Amino acid sequence: MEFKTAAFGGFDKQSVLTYIDELISKSQEREAELQRQADEASSSRDLMSSQLAELQVKVTSLEEQLSKKDEAVNEREEALQKREEQLSASQAGKDARIAELESQLAQACERVNQLQGALHQGEEKSRRYDEVTAQVGAVMLEAQKQADDIVSRARSQAEQIAKESIDNIYDINKRVDEFKNDIYRLRSFAAETLQGLDDKMSAIDLAIKEAEGHLYISAGNTDSGEPAYEEPYQAPSQQAPAGAGYEPRRMENPDFFTQPYQG
């Protein structure tokens, strides 16, 4: 902009003052626009902070649930260990019973041999032989049947308990992994949200400082060698904006939200 010159040399004071007024007006408009952006950013920051607080509550809740799941897994593993100990003790009892039946079977076989010897030596050899043979056969069949039944039941119970234990542990571990993945995703989202808000507030602070610098430089360039007329500066009556002097918050541990959960 070119200023009018006065009749006695120098710039026309009214032109200079008009230019300064226009410059101040534009600067005030720019400052108002930046203030509006700062207010919007402040509102956005408050909203983001509220959302972040909600996310942190959810993360805490999920961590508590995960802790309870870990406790449940530990309790389940302890129960399975006790069950295995009981099964081992039961199996030992069944083995002892089988050994006892085998001993009885051996005694029965020995008795059969004795009876068979007596048949050859006693009277009514043929009749007594048939009678004793029938008795011995029944004893042997019953003893063998009981031994086979006990062994079969013990094996079936052991296989069933082992299968149930493996299935239960796999299902619990799968749910624990799902909870860990949910917590990791929530932490990553919270970290990205907070970083975006910090970057936006830093950009607004920089724009305000640049505008103030341009205003001071422009006012200094209007000096014509004569004492310039200066109107008293009227400070704005409104309170300082909520975002003025905002310094981007930096977390003490910026990796907190991106670290995988260590259960």
Number of helices: 2
What is the count of β-strands? 0
CATH level 1 name? Mainly Alpha
CATH topology: Helix Hairpins
What is the number of independent domains? 1
Termini distance?
69 Å
| Percent helix | over 70%
Structural notes for this entry:
The protein has 263 residues and is mainly α. The chain has one domain: Helix Hairpins (Orthogonal Bundle), CATH 1.10.287. 78% of the residues lie in helices and 0% in strands. It has two helices and no strands. The longest helix has 109 residues. The radius of gyration is 48 Å and the shape is rod-shaped. The two termini are 69 Å apart. About 13% of the residues have low confidence.
SSE layout and pairings?
Blueprint: H1 13-121, H2 125-220
Keywords:
mainly alpha, rod-shaped, 78% helix, 0% strand, 2 helices, 263 residues, Helix Hairpins
What's this, in brief?
Residues 29-49, 63-95, 218-263 are annotated as: Disordered. By secondary structure, the protein is mainly alpha-helical. It is built from two helices and no strands.
